[in-house]
């Protein structure tokens, strides 16, 4: 069986978290060059995908921080979530094969 479907409970959440993380990085980098209220369709897509997550990060971070710093913290939190999810599944023995299980598959 295909490894993707054997470990779908790892790959699908990891893919979604990675997609949001890289979209957030794209928003951060593009935001250095364009105004926040720019009406371009790519900018609107970045904002539509990342705004719900940025609102959550803004809620748990101090109001003193600027928007750019909140975006950076958002990327860091997503990296931490992805790593914690991997470690959780690896420690539970739910990720098999390769380096995660310590042997060849």
Descriptive account of the structure:
The protein is mostly helical and about 100 residues long. The chain has one domain (about 10-95). It is about 70% helix and about 0% strand. It has four helices and no strands. It has helices at about 5, 10-30, 40-60, 65-90.
Set down the secondary structure blueprint:
Blueprint: H1 3-6, H2 8-31, H3 41-60, H4 67-91
Helix pairs in contact: 2-3, 2-4, 3-4
Task: Summarize this structure briefly.
By secondary structure, the chain is mostly helical. The chain is 70% helix and 0% strand.
Large-scale geometry: elongated
By secondary-structure content and strand pairing, the structural class works out as mainly alpha
Give the helix proportion (percent range): 55-70%
Give a quick account of the main beta sheet: strands, pairing sense, barrel closure.
none
What's the total number of strands? 0
Give descriptors for this structure.
4 helices, single chain, disordered C terminus, mainly alpha, 105 residues
